[in-house]
Amino acid sequence: MQVVKTDCALCVNCCGVDAYVDDGRLVKVSGIPEHFLNQGGLCPKGEHLVEWVYSPDRVKYPMKRVGNALQRISWDQAMDEIAGKLKELKAAYGPQTMAIYTGSVGVENIELAAFMQRFRGAYGSPNFLCVESICYRVRILARQITFGRYPVEEPEKANCIILWGHNPENTYWTIAKDIRKRVKEGLKLITIDPRRIPLAKLGIHVQPRPGTDCAIALAMMHVIINEDLWDKEFVNKWTVGFDKLVEHVKPLTPEWAENISGVPAPEIRKIARLFATTKGACILQGVCSMDQQMNSLQNSRAFSILETITGNIDIPGGWATTPLLPLTDLRLPLDAKPIGADEYPVFYKFGKRPAPYGQAMLLSETILNEKPYPIKALLVAGGNPALDFPDTNRFLAAMKKLDLLVVIDPFMSETADLAHYILPACTFLEKEGIGGYPYGLMHGTSFVMLRKKVIEPLHESKADWWVWSELGHRMGYGEHFPWKTDEEVVDHLFSKSVISTKQLKENPGGSFFGEKVYRIYEKSGFSTESGKIEIYSKGLERFGFPGLPTHIEPSQSPVANPELAKDYPEILITGARALEYIHTQLRNLPGIRAMRNEPEAEVHPATARKYGFVNGEVIGVETPRGQIKIRAKVTEDIKEGVVSIPHGWAVANANVLTDITMRDAIVGYPETKAIACRLVKLG
Ligand SMILES: Nc1nc2c(c(=O)[nH]1)N[C@H]1C(S)=C(S)[C@@H](COP(=O)(O)OP(=O)(O)OC[C@H]3O[C@@H](n4cnc5c(=O)[nH]c(N)nc54)[C@H](O)[C@@H]3O)O[C@H]1N2
Ligand SMILES: Nc1nc2c(c(=O)[nH]1)N[C@H]1C(S)=C(S)[C@@H](COP(=O)(O)OP(=O)(O)OC[C@H]3O[C@@H](n4cnc5c(=O)[nH]c(N)nc54)[C@H](O)[C@@H]3O)O[C@H]1N2
Ligand code: SF4
Ligand SMILES: [Mo]
């Protein structure tokens, strides 16, 4: 039996995997014991890789929709017909009529996103869209605005951690495991979450009204400044705008924040003191929970300021800057602006370089209204927007207007169910690729690993890069796609990096890390306009937004919209993750279903009593956009009046309830975490 050392790309964690191959077939997987991240463990998703890759539900060959049926066609026919249609649409409407979209798989699968961008460049369309319109980018942007770069959390060295809308036990289990161990050794843990997650029981826990986190952060700043707990040396030397902050937060007392958030003022004082008096203090902010809010950018800015005034920037256990491990850029130069550039100019271009993508949350409206121009073709790889985009009904209406929808996926998805053409992608186990996070992520370091091929591609599936390259050739862009094998692609991507494929192959552990240097500002300052940390952002002010974070009410809150609250008095949060699933994926695996067979709505007993239902009953959850039916889990572990439902389930689709027109004014992120709802007792 052969053991291939590779990584798992089912989620962004990229755990190290020993893949056991017998006669060309993957028979078993286990965690690599010496891998820095997972140290021999795998989560239930990773443990089911064998069942996943050999699932009978794989898309086995290219298919074309003819009437209501799907017809098997050859790769040749599929490529020729899609290329023909794309040429026709380009001639009729211009190149911007094609949009391409990738979901979170495009973050984990570096070649995929690189080739999609190359293809759109060759075609001439600015409309590369990706999941970073709803996830993650906003924190990077907020930190770039504040620090001129992207310092990341370093929880493994922290002495105080705030889990701020983040439940790593279900999403980043390796971090959670480490937190559990270190709490026993004295790590101080604070959880700010309307749900009492298991980790909350290991420290201080407060339960805010959803969407009021910025008010709590501002009141913490008030306490820290008022009680003289701020890091004077660091703030005086390395920041601008502290004087303005002092004035700004003067009236923003813990009592003011209690009134907004429901968190008692003494608790806010306690948290602020603990955070400010423990060096190596790290806010581990929700990866999308703090983003999918009306105040998403300012939430992240507030966290940046808290880290700054307590002197926790670029020190061990705070937020530290990781060196990048740059890969070769495959993008072709392009001048045109994507959708969303005018509506959300800060999202599009705050500093010198524009974002590589448009604001995907405008896609449905753009297709439906044909403004500023018609989008007639959508090519999707590595995403399932039919279930993952907010406002499913608007998305479905938009899809009906397309002349061409192509989905490239190893599995049938709700988006593939709508497509004109479905192309079988092979999974990461069936090709050579790049794993890790060369640009640094949540684990305080940047690292890369060779994602080795474990088995030959199954059925007629092909590597994603090949699909875009082949389509490029058929369109007449062959000169831009010279690569012939996975290995050539990976070699090319590493050709400008600090490490080569050859070195990675020779390295017995298989991973390469960016060497971290603390206090690098002493050498290079901060790459902001002022060269210092911008507590007050003049840049944001120039765009017409407040230079300091402020509290903004969720658009459907009882405060912002009391009329609506009469009909929809509860607050819905969507998308809390379960460990067993990744977004919409893995629902087809019996082994995973045996662990968690259906979605549940978490509701407080007092809320359940109000509507007269009991634990285990199927109830209705309604918002102004629609209704879903879902089983109730009545639990004390959620704030009264808050309802939490997971996303990614077709049987109880959270996004039937969300409204994509409710967006943060600065970055266009959609509000999916604090929306008005009511419950219905059925039957
Ligand atoms: N209401 C609500 N909605 C949300 C969220 C929420 O919290 N609440 N969260 C949002 C967030 S943060 C995110 S990141 C998105 C996630 O949304 P998506 O990124 O759309 O996530 P998935 O459902 O995982 O879709 C991935 C698709 O890629 C396919 N795939 C897997 N591997 C490969 C591959 O190698 N190649 C190709 N071509 N395809 C592959 C899978 O089969 C699957 O169909 O959802 C968002 N939607
Ligand atoms: N198993 C698994 N892991 C995943 C994913 C997955 O689908 N499955 N998805 C991956 C992706 S793309 C992402 S973006 C991340 C998501 O990562 P996160 O956004 O960090 O999601 P969770 O870790 O579930 O924690 C979110 C917590 O925020 C709380 N919350 C909701 N609204 C509010 C609010 O207004 N205020 C406060 N303070 N808390 C609130 C919820 O109760 C929940 O406990 O996970 C990644 N990892
Ligand atoms: S956390 Fe699970 S799914 Fe994610 S990379 Fe690790 S083993 Fe794979
Ligand atoms: Mo995400």
> What is the count of DSSP helices, taking H or I runs of 4+ residues?
26
Rg (C-alpha, Å): 24 Å
Overall pLDDT level: 96
Stretches where pLDDT falls below 50 for ≥5 residues? none
Number of self-contained structural domains: 4
Morphology: globular
Question: Beta fraction of the residues?
Answer: 15-25%
Give the beta-strand count: 27
Distinct compounds present:
ligand MGD, iron/sulfur cluster, molybdenum atom
The strand order across the widest sheet is: 5-4-17-16-15-6-7
CATH class of the largest domain: Alpha Beta
Protein described:
The chain is built from 26 helices and 27 strands. α16 (363-369) crosses α18 (392-400). It is of the alpha/beta class and 683 residues long. The model has no long low-confidence stretch (mean pLDDT 96). The strands form 7 sheets. The protein has a 7-stranded mixed sheet with strand order 5-4-17-16-15-6-7. A 6-stranded mixed barrel has the order 22-26-23-25-24-27. The protein folds into 4 domains: 2-53, 2-Layer Sandwich (Phosphorylase Kinase, domain 1); 63-133 and 326-437 and 447-512, Rossmann fold; 139-322 and 520-542, Dimethylsulfoxide Reductase, domain 2, CATH 3.40.228.10; 562-681, Barwin-like endoglucanases (Beta Barrel), CATH 2.40.40. 31% of the residues lie in helices and 19% in strands. The structure holds ligand MGD (2 copies), iron/sulfur cluster (SF4) and molybdenum atom.
